[in-house]
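Hello again,

I reread your note about wanting to compare the complex against the isolated chains. To keep things tidy I'm splitting this into two emails, and this first one only covers the full assembly. Below are the input lines as submitted, including protein chains and any nucleic acid or small-molecule components. They are followed by the predicted structure of everything together. The single-chain runs will come separately.
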Amino acid sequence: MYSWRKIREKLFICIIILLSLLAIAPIIHLVIVVSINGIAIFVKAGTSFFTGLPPTPLSEEIGGIAPSIIGTLLMTMISLSITITLAVFAAILTTEFPKNSISVAIDAIAKSLASIPTIAVSMIVYTLVVVPMKGFSALAGSVALTIIALPYAYTYFSMVLRSVPAIYREAAFSVAMSRWSAVIRVLIPIARKGIAVGVLMTMARIMGETAALLFTAGRFRNKVSFSPTEPADAIPLLIFDYILSPYDIWHQVAWGATALLLLAYIAIFFAVKLIVKEVKL
Amino acid sequence: MFAVEMNNVNVYLGDRQILKEVTLKVHYNTVFVIMGPSGSGKTTLLRVINRLIDTTEGARVVGSIRVLGFDVMNYDPYELRKHIGMVFQVPNPFPHLTIYENVAIAAKINGVVKNKKELNDVVRWALEKAMLWDEVKDRLHEYPHQLSGGQRQRLCLARALAMKPKLLLLDEPTANIDPVNARKLENAIVSLKDEVTVVMVTHSPYQAARVADYVAVLYDGMVVEQGSAQQLFLRPSTDIAQKLLRGEM
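Full-complex prediction:
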């Protein structure tokens, strides 16, 4: 016969399982719905979905989203490289010299930047970059994405570096490593998994951002452009525009684009899991 | 000439004084043990010697400290640490490096070796000195988490030795390991005397008796008694030293 303690334990486990299932159910539902609808579009459109131009509203053909794919890749590459470089250096500085006035300023700026609405960032970049350049561009979009991703990445990297136990920093100093050498040879390698996850999360944040690009990138999807100074499009912008339209063909393209974005996230997630090994302390 | 010579050293952490007028001298090629109850400032004293105290926020050191002939407070701390190895209370081998790399990195950073053969020789020498070679010679490319706690601590000793230091600081190195490993570490420490001066912190009077040539007793940041191990263990002159030896502190 079960004792009351055992029954309570079983009940507690059941509640935990139920709550966990409830928490992940929307995500699973989302992945399934997007995959079913999106993959059907991939099959219907074939490879032209990745290489062609978007269809006209009354077109019979689904066409493709090449300008949006290239625009997303271009802006993600520019923004990610700037964001990661600045965020890692800022995180190192504030972790190693937390009381330094520059560190205090960086921390305060990062916190205030994180609270600015993304649409406001888009307006600010419109005024500071788009107007002087006399046109929308992938570069303006990248600047907006960087402003949004930077505080996010900085906060994450700071947390990762601070989570490395102090005993390893002391060990590095004890074998006569300089502070810089300790960071490069010890702290970053120990925190490599966390840093890789941070890069992935920042990338996901950049790739999925919509509002920041509304007044900066240009929503230009008539041709594929590789130039950072020309107007560009991005997959989230295309999804946003097409899903709000009254045309069924554009709805289908939006499903396909959403599935592509989702698959890209999943692929990057598993790639990082497989490639970057965690350091066992 | 002394390996370590401290005169009227005071250490403050913010408003709190951790070390008070500490004066002590450590002869070359001896094992100098610092004993004292918890919170008496033993670890701080070690961290002053290699200026690891600099990494503590709000720490301030006043007084004259000469280590291996260098004026510690007016010398580059990174250069100073090239001559001073240290083993901590908690084993802290670099977890992302293999057993071999953990020892090799210390030799490489300090320019102890010129080529791969010399590096291999130093790694082997350091692991032998730390009495670990026989246990790891076939698994040099494994990682520290695959070793026991005592083996990890001896790996830290090997890492410190690979720098070919003239002075070795040991901060309660056996506090977190089993008695068998502790004894191996003690044997290693005693055997090192010919090549390096050892300053060691310990809680245990028995351990101090086994390894020490000289002993200093620290209490509330002050050196209350110091002298040869024989003199201190046989005829302790202060009440504090007597209580410490009886295990009453």
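For quick reference: Chain B has one domain: 4-246.

B.
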